[in-house]
């Protein structure tokens, strides 16, 4: 169980998510990979009035834990149990749209999630997807293991996808140098926010956005 603690998004990153949720005035939020609900509750705390966070989680224990805590604390958070790909497909079939999507699940499946979201119009034009771990401890740059290569393939596909405006930024899990053309990594959360201002100026206002957090 101890190793699972590392799955939590770090506090600085949840603060960044909250900041983005507030800036985008997000209401319908989806989190792919919910674990104990730390990021989900963080986003629920600041989402627009009447909003909802829908989580997707494979493990029954975490689903029950989060759904129970949500009920007890009167927070509109609901976790759906199952494999992320099949739950996403069923949300798509039901015609759901989410204006804020946080992807933090199986790294090798990120592109599958993305394709389901985009092909089924689940992200409205002003929506944003935030993906965790797009550096994957540097291995997405060095392509030195299978996961790193998959994450790099995902990063490359996103950066070439004209349907979204994308940026990559340092999150809260430590520094790693980036040498590609995306946003340079920032070490301090405050500085990170400054850089992201460029991102918020939204040069392509009709496009949804994708932010990768390293
Ligand atoms: C990195 S953790 C999520 C952390 C959470 N976003 C947070 O910030 O606290 C990834 C979660 O995805 C779940 N998971 C793993 N494989 C999955 C799958 N195929 N479908 C759905 N959830 C899965 C794990 O059980 C784990 O709780």
UniProtKB/TrEMBL annotation:
The keyword Transcription does not apply. The keyword S-adenosyl-L-methionine applies. PROSITE patterns: SAM_OMT_I. It comes from the Eukaryota. InterPro entries: Cation-dep_OMT, SAM-dependent_MTases_sf, SAM_O-MeTrfase. Keywords: Methyltransferase, S-adenosyl-L-methionine, Transferase. It holds the Pfam family Methyltransf_3. GO terms for molecular function: O-methyltransferase activity; S-adenosylmethionine-dependent methyltransferase activity. GO terms for biological process: methylation. Belongs to the class I-like SAM-binding methyltransferase superfamily. Cation-dependent O-methyltransferase family. PANTHER family: CAFFEOYL-COA O-METHYLTRANSFERASE 3-RELATED (PTHR10509:SF14), O-METHYLTRANSFERASE-RELATED (PTHR10509). This is Caffeoyl-CoA O-methyltransferase. It comes from Holothuria leucospilota.
């Amino acid at each position: 169980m101890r190793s699972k603690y590392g799955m939590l998004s770090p506090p600085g990153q949840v603060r960044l998510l909250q900041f983005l949720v507030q800036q985008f005035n997000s209401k319908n939020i989806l989190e792919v990979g919910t674990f104990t609900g730390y990021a989900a509750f963080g986003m629920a705390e600041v989402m627009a009035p009447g909003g909802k966070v829908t989580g997707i989680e494979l493990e029954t224990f975490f689903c029950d834990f989060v759904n129970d805590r949500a009920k007890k604390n009167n927070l509109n958070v609901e976790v759906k149990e199952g494999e992320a790909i099949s739950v996403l497909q069923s949300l798509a079939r039901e015609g759901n749209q989410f204006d804020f999507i946080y992807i933090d699940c199986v790294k090798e499946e990120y592109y599958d999630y993305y394709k389901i979201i985009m092909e089924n119009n689940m992200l409205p034009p002003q929506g944003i997807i935030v993906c965790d771990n797009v550096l994957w401890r540097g291995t997405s740059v060095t392509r030195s293991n299978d996961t790193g290569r998959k994450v790099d393939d995902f990063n490359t596909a996103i950066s070439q996808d004209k349907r979204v405006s994308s940026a990559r930024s340092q999150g809260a899990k430590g520094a790693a140098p980036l040498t590609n053309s995306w946003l340079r990594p920032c070490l301090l959360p405050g500085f990170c926010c400054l850089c992201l201002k460029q991102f918020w100026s939204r040069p392509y206002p009709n496009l949804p956005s994708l932010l990768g957090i390293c």
